[in-house]
Design a protein that fits this description.
heterodimer, A: 312 residues, mainly alpha, two-stranded antiparallel sheet, 15 helices, 75% helix, globular, B: 279 residues, BP-dep_ABC_trans_perm (chain B)
Chain lengths: 312, 279
């Protein structure tokens, strides 16, 4: 008897079970718990601390407890904004990062297109070479490029037949070489991502374009770029974030920011101010300003995501 | 062969050569005898390859230890970050709940935070934690695992989101009808299905941890035994004359494992990125 009555009820229960997420009110929070346990103390708290430190007079004496920490309000910020040096570092950080983003995207996108047109063997060669550059740690990339451009034993000077020219002497030449190293590291991500994206575009679309007589240039700008827009946004934003936060290459290749700190970027400047000069409060203020700039970029990005209709 | 194919092939090969050259030069220089490195007549090959630099690096500077340290830190971060990010990605893709968008935006914002700027408060945080939990204080590998886990997580979640979303929900529903419990569905069905995504994500987490220079330099102050590779490399830079043979050998040792890892998962990585793209 029971079997008979439950049988018709079967589909009904199935529908109920399959209906969206029963008992799921707390479950997403349960799944988010481990992330929160990591991110709140290691992200939230330090960000709060960074802001707090930036309004205190916090130097070696205060760290060691020799003197009491003193609240100084916006003094660190006033000092920074009134400092010519801060503005020049900020300026060159923006210019350097912008140049890196443009160069990385140009090289990465161009080579992604090349990949789609190249034969099997050249494609494999370029993919493997790019993987190698991508996989190379920032630290070792820095050391190799330094060696290539070494004044005495570097390959570049020997090939050019110039003796003892120091590539790390002039500010912008140095930025150029550090920039080349960074682009070398970062174009593979752009290339591989965009190539994967282009591969995902249905062949029929490209075929139709070529049947309609569209040139390669047209196909790229009118079809590939619009179809890859979400992907391009991600790649651009990632590049901005990475390039704005460059640290290792500058720090290592210019030995902590170059001659008299001429090759400093905000990151290195903040680090040196805090750990080099023991001005932890002032260093934190630089960190806050940098965070705010990147936050502004993030907000623009989120707005762009919403505008493009991507659902979060 | 068409003209455009020919141009593409030429550009691809030229770009490959230029891109690979620094790696080649690094390995070559690591194998060159000291005399050839010092020589002012440079040659793009060597007739007398030697392991003297590798021997010096591995023997003299405690390098094996640093290598192991880097590996332990990176692998721990990869495993922890994969599991934690997977759970979070399931939460934000499979459930509609209040503040879901807010949570997502928080992950995005976390990615943007210049972590180097956080070095200052994190240094004090780690120092203070160390007095309570010595395992994650200054001079420990635990401190590095913690910070790298935190920094690789937002990006990992953001990436995993696409992979989880790509798995049809019908599969989970079918399993549920068959009476599978939620944990079983999560680990036995969903987790294996997002494996390509996990691999792609793991590559990024691994690299974040393996490459880290700033935190290793800041946190590992005096305990030489807890040093990791990137910071240890600085030992070979001397004020008077850099030991280029040693630097190149150490750099090679640091690069090759990642290279192998990368090439091994290369297909998966590309497929993974493609998967994220289609989302």
């Amino acid at each position: 008897m029971t079997t008979v009555t439950t049988a018709p009820a079967g589909p009904d229960t199935q529908v109920r079970q399959a209906s969206p997420r029963p008992g799921g009110r707390l479950r997403p929070w349960l799944y988010l718990l481990p992330s929160a346990a990591v991110l709140l103390p290691l992200f939230g708290y330090p960000i709060y601390m960074l802001g707090l430190l930036s309004v205190f007079d916090y130097r070696q004496a205060q760290v060691s407890g020799g003197e009491p920490t003193r609240f100084i309000g916006a003094d660190n910020y006033t000092a920074l904004l009134g400092d010519q040096r801060f503005w020049s570092v900020l300026g060159q950080t923006v210019v350097f990062a912008a140049a890196l983003v443009v160069a990385t995207l140009a090289v990465g996108a161009a080579l992604a297109v090349v990949l789609t047109r190249a034969g099997r063997v050249p494609r494999l060669l370029l993919s493997l070479a790019a993987m190698a550059a991508w996989a190379a740690p920032a630290m070792t990339g820095a050391t190799v490029w330094m060696f290539l451009f070494d004044a005495d034993l570097g390959l570049v000077n020997q090939l050019l037949g110039i003796e003892g020219y120091n590539w790390f002497y002039d500010k912008w030449v140095t930025f150029g070489i550090v920039g080349a190293t960074v682009v070398w590291h970062s174009f593979p991500f752009v290339m591989v991502t965009l190539y994967a994206g282009i591969q995902a575009i249905p062949g029929s679309v490209l075929e139709a374009a070529s049947l309609d007589g569209a040139s390669a240039w047209h196909t790229f700008w009118r079809i590939i770029v619009p179809m890859l827009r979400p992907l391009i946004t991600i790649v651009v934003i990632q590049s901005i974030i990475w390039d704005f936060k460059i640290f290792t290459q500058i720090y290592v290749m210019t030995n902590g920011g170059g001659i008299a700190g001429q090759n400093s970027v905000l990151n290195v400047y903040a680090y040196q101010t805090a750990f080099g000069s023991s001005e932890y409060g002032l260093g934190s203020a630089i960190g806050v300003i940098m965070t705010l700039i990147l936050l502004a970029v993030t907000l623009l990005y989120i707005r762009a995501l919403y505008r493009s209709g991507e659902k979060l | 062969m068409s003209r455009s194919r020919l141009i593409a092939n030429t550009v691809a090969v030229a770009a490959a050569v230029v891109t690979f050259f620094p790696i080649y030069w690094m390995v070559l220089s690591a194998l060159k005898p000291a005399g050839e490195i010092q020589s002012l007549e440079v040659r793009p090959w060597t007739l007398a390859p030697t392991f003297e630099h590798f021997q010096r690096v591995l023997g003299g500077e405690n390098f094996g230890r640093y290598f192991l340290n880097s590996l332990v830190v990176a692998l721990t971060v990869v495993v922890l970050s994969a599991v934690v990010a997977f759970l979070a990605a399931v939460a934000v893709t499979r459930f509609r709940f209040r503040f879901r968008t807010t949570v997502l935006i928080m992950f995005l914002v976390a990615q943007m935070v210049p972590v180097e700027a956080l070095t200052i408060p994190l240094f004090f945080l780690v120092r203070d934690i160390g007095t309570v939990v010595p395992g994650v204080g200054l001079n420990t590998l635990g401190s590095l695992v913690l910070v790298h886990l935190a920094f690789s997580l937002p990006f990992a979640v953001w990436m995993m989101r696409g992979f989880v979303a790509a798995v049809p929900e019908a599969l989970e529903e079918a399993a549920m009808i068959d009476g599978a419990s939620r944990p079983v569905i999560l680990w036995r069905i969903l987790f294996p299905l997002v494996a390509p995504g996990l691999i792609a994500t793991s590559v990024f987490s691994f690299i974040t941890a393996w490459n880290d220079f700033i935190f290793a330099r800041t946190f590992i102050i005096s305990a030489k035994d807890s040093q990791t590779l990137p910071a240890a490399l600085l030992v070979f830079f001397k004020p008077d004359e850099n030991d280029w043979g040693g630097i190149m050998a150490a750099s090679t040792l640091m690069t090759v494992p990642v290279l192998i890892f990368f090439v091994a998962v290369q297909r998966r990585l590309v497929a993974g990125l493609g998967g994220a793209v289609k989302d």
